[in-house]
Amino acid sequence: GENVEQHPSTLSVQEGDSAVIKCTYSDSASNYFPWYKQELGKGPQLIIDIRSNVGEKKDQRIAVTLNKTAKHFSLHITETQPEDSAVYFCAASGGRGSTLGRLYFGRGTQLTVWP
Amino acid sequence: ETGVTQTPRHLVMGMTNKKSLKCEQHLGHNAMYWYKQSAKKPLELMFVYNFKEQTENNSVPSRFSPECPNSSHLFLHLHTLQPEDSALYLCASSQDLGQRISGNTIYFGEGSWLTVV
Lengths: 115, 117
Fold this sequence. Notes:
The complex is a heterodimer. By secondary structure, chain A is mainly beta. Helix content of chain A is 0%, strand content 53%. Chain A has strands at 4-7, 10-14, 19-25, 32-38, 45-51, 56-59, 62-67, 72-77, 86-92, 104-105, 109-114. In chain A, strands 2, 4, 5, 9, 10 and 11 form a 6-stranded mixed β-sheet that branches. A 5-stranded antiparallel β-sheet of chain A has the order 1-3-8-7-6, with no helix packed on it. Chain A is globular. The mean pLDDT of chain A is 92. By secondary structure, chain B is mainly beta. In chain B, strand 5 (44-50) and strand 6 form a beta hairpin. The radius of gyration of chain B is 14 Å and the shape is globular. The model of chain B has no long low-confidence stretch (mean pLDDT 91). Classes of the chains: A mainly beta, B mainly beta. Chains A and B meet through strand 4 and strand 5 of A and strand 5 and strand 10 of B.
């Protein structure tokens, strides 16, 4: 199956700075990469996703980039705000060795934005 | 409001109790999932149902028993649990299992916090 590695496990930034979280995946055929945000006491919420036919996708302050050759994808948050503080999970799916419909998750990044 | 509703949000049960977690999705989806989230561990997929049929059981102990009476409802029946089963149990749904070519967007509920004493 797919193996997804996520770094860093914790990230602290000052309000207004940018934050970058990186993930690598093992199955070169994986083609769908969502990112989830999980606030304290809540379930993971989908915030952005990218498919393998696209190299970059933006939605206001968040963007995701995908490098298929290197098998890594990254989440970029600009102009961070305290409410961005949460755990962020990356995931991958669609690879030849993976079960249809199954998402393979990274271990998560605890992002803290200091005012 | 995520479209996936889980009850109860918090549950404390003894090791000899029998309880159930309930999940309902209002998104018109056909696939539903149970995940377990423990501290310091990645999200663990437990069960997958597609059109009410179980398609995946990820080597889950038999003290966890899922039930999917229809595409909108999913239950997790709990019996003789252990303290190490204490965790956040997340229900999720998706339109179906998706296609390899297009991926599969999964939506989570808020979770049920389970404490086994």
